[in-house]
Amino acid sequence: MTFKLRPKYYIFFYAVLCLFISSCHKSVEQLSDDSAKADSILERTDGLLNSGQINKAIRYLDSAYRAFPEAGPIDKWKKYSCLNNLYLNYQLSPARAERYTDSMYLVLKGREYVNATEYAKTLFASGNVFRNQKRYDEAFKRYYEGRKFAKKYLDSCQFSEFTNRLGLIRYAQQKYLKAIPYFKQALKENRHCNADSKFPDRFILPQSIYNNIAFSYEQANLPDSALYYYQEGLAFIERMAPEFEERKAYIETAKGVFYGNLGGQYAELNNFEQAEKYLKESIRLNDRPGYAREDASSAKNKLANMYLQSGHMHEADNLIRQMELDLKKREGKNEEKELTQKLFLLLKSRYHEKTGNWPEAFRYLQQYNSMKDSLNEVAVELRGTDIDVVFKQSEQQYKLEMVSKDNKLKTFYLTGAIVVALMIVSILAIVLYNLKRSRRNVKALKDINDQLQQTLMVLEQSEEDNARMMRVVAHDLRNPIGSITMIASLMLHRSNLAREDMDLLEMMKRSSKDCLDMVDDLLQPKGNDAIFERKPEDLFRILRYCIDQLTLKAGEKRQEIILDASPLIASVNAEKMWRVVSNLINNAIKFSPEATFIEVSLREKTGGAVIAVQDHGIGIPAELRDKIFDMPAEARRKGTSGESTFGLGLAIAKQIVNAHRGTIWFEETPGGGTTFYVELPLSEDN
After folding, report:
1. What is the 3-state secondary structure (H, E, C) of 488-532?
2. Are the beta carbons of 341 and 335 closer than 8 angstroms?
3. Average confidence score pLDDT of the chain
4. Tell me, what DSSP letter sits at residue 684?
5. Which long-range contacts does 316-325 make (Cβ < 8 Å, 24+ apart)?
6. Is 52 helix (H, G, I), strand (E, B) or coil?
7. CA-CA distance, 222 to 6, in Å (whole number)?
8. Total Cβ atoms within 10 A of residue 452
9. d(Cα 163, Cα 595) in Å, to the nearest integer?
10. Integer distance in angstroms from the first to the last C-alpha of the chain?
């Protein structure tokens, strides 16, 4: 029997929050009389908190600020912010935390836009207080206000912290796959920090984000991705360490945290050799004064569980004794301490079970189940609130407030509209009355019917003319497109071109060839649409090619296309499948708002493959869902940025997929948007 240790997703993030606060972005106005002194005090406080000396940290912070009478308003804000974090995450006293949040607001009164970073963090801190008080709707509304304010007044480097915090909220709701895009976006935004940015911006936050991404993949049961991001995080730490040699202790602490998490993941994969190596190194680095001893205790728990599983009872007993001493020394009261105690109770139960002491094993298991139920109750309550719904409600409320400011103008327009509507109704009534009384109108209707018949005949003739014209145009297009292909091929043979130019020319050449193939399709006689050559192709390569072509288009709307796929061979027509996938991704870009994610994935199933294109856009109205695959398509509408559409892409995609003996369908994405699926057989025999 194995037990999965739940990763502590926020322990290291909150352990350095006070230090992060000390490096807030300076505005044009002088923020304090002696900010360097305040930063030094907070750094020392952070060191005490990180080593588990909570009471000593509180006493030191109070005494240091009593000896700091010249503290300016932002210096005081930093103190209140640190205390707010302390009573939320170390002493678990939401009432005290709320008082310090009020003090943060008071210090910033009248300075909200001058000190935009501090004000945005205050809004998030207030949301954290409400969340700990189980006032989830109020908490998420405050997060919405903080995010909206930060997005408007902060640059990408500063905004990355708030995107990361939204990801942590998703993680706390156990919506791990929905948390990952926030963390990845935060990492992308953080890369805008320049060389002048301070240690928290350039090291603390990005290494924490790598950890959060890996945690999310681990909880989503995607161990390969988790291991990849743990290794990426360690590589980042090694790469940045030479730039911050004066922060050696902190960097070693961070490295120890990653080793512990990496070792835990290897233990879950039953790779005991790697797990033991990393867990022991984590304990060596962090099980000492001034380092992350709580994290070292977590690594001991994972290592002890592994020893129990492999029958190394003596080693497990030594670690359990060490952990008992660690728990007795730990100060404060918080969710993390309760989680550590819960996991320790489970470990003790397993130990007594292995040694045959069944009464003690049962007693510890009962205590574990009691704590587990109380912690699960909090998690269930938090999961019950949908942050997207609350954000949408807040957005609607904001819009309503804006509308109310223009109430008089709206009333005038409404009155005018009513008057015009009454006039129209009156005119229509008179017209209808006269139509009923006039026998001449019957003849007029017959004449109109004759005219419609003639018009229909003209339209049919026009359709035939248009078809002929289309074939002529398609034929004439071959020469210029062929010239583009030839020019691109000639330029590719030049040796003095930059790599980036070579890539663009190669894409131009491939795109021109694809255009020629489509022109050939237009010139084919009707009835041959479903006949084309199929051969084994790598679906991953087709997806990658489509994404490379459309990345620039997505970038115009600040969208990011995320590919989650591995090489997979299927018998398809590559050019046709390129058209299908390009149409789906192009629609996702067109009907998604700015700064969102488009996720493209490829999964193998028994005898087949499933391609999914997921967006977080405006969705498909109910009245159009039965028409989007029709030819000619009636379900046409403009994109989120006013892009025009002809409504043919999905109809063409359906024809191509059917010809492959596959299926195409769509589903609504939870929280908004649409996911299109294409299922294909891997071979022609399937």
Report:
1. HHHHHCCCCCCHHHHHHHHHHHHHHHHHHHHHHHHHCCCCCCCCC
2. no
3. 80
4. T
5. 316/351, 317/351, 320/347, 320/348, 320/351, 323/297, 323/347
6. coil
7. 14
8. 10
9. 12
10. 40
Question: Could you give the CA distance from residue 386 to residue 376 in angstroms, rounded to a whole number?
Answer: 17
CB neighbour list of residue 297: distance below 8 Å, 6 or more residues apart: 287, 323, 326, 327, 340
Distance of CA 392 to the CA centre of its chain: 17
Strands 560-564 and 608-614: unpaired
- pLDDT tops 70 at residue 97: yes
What is the three-class DSSP state of 661? coil
Helix pair angle (440-492, 499-523), 10° resolution: 140
Question: Dmax of the chain from CA atoms?
Answer: 107
Give the whole-angstrom CA distance, residue 255 versus residue 271.
20
290 within 8 A of 47, measured Cβ to Cβ? yes
CB atoms within 10 A of CB 645: 16
> Is residue 287 within 8 Å of residue 275, measured between CB atoms?
no
Q: What percent of the chain has pLDDT over 70?
A: 78
Residues 278 and 248: their CA atoms lie apart, in Å, by 19
Contact between residue 316 and residue 307 where contact means Cβ atoms under 8 Å apart: yes
Question: Sign (positive/negative) of CA torsion 30, 32, 37, 43?
Answer: negative
Of all residues in the chain, what percent are helix, strand and coil, respectively (each to 5)? Answer: 70, 5, 25
Helix (H) or strand (E) holding 659: helix 649-659
Q: Which of 71-75, 142-146, 322-326 has the highest mean pLDDT?
A: 71-75
Question: Which runs of E-coded beta strand occur in 467-625?
Answer: 535-538, 560-564, 569-572, 597-605, 608-614
How far is residue 680's CA from residue 602's CA, in Å, rounded to a whole number?
A: 11
Q: What is the DSSP letter of 291?
A: S
Task: Report the run of H or E that residue 370 belongs to, with start and end.
Answer: helix 358-383
Pair 440, 446: CB distance under 8 Å: no
DSSP 3-state of 641? coil
Residue 168 and residue 139: Cα distance in Å, rounded?
Answer: 14
Tokens in use for 4? 């999965």
Whether residue 50 contacts residue 15, with contact meaning beta carbons closer than 8 Å, is answered with yes
Instruction: Choose from 52-61, 442-451, 503-512 the range with maximum mean pLDDT.
Output: 52-61
Tokens of 18: 């006070």
Cα(579)–Cα(651) distance, integer angstroms:
12
Q: Record the tokens describing residue 357, joined without a space.
A: 């002491």
Say how many C-beta atoms besides its own lie within 10 A of residue 387's C-beta. Answer: 20
| Chain centroid, CA 496 distance in Å | 41
H helix intervals, 270-312: 272-286, 293-310
pLDDT tens digits for range 239-285: 999 998 888 888 999 999 999 999 999 999 999 999 999 999 999 99
Task: List the structure tokens of 94.
Answer: 């939401």
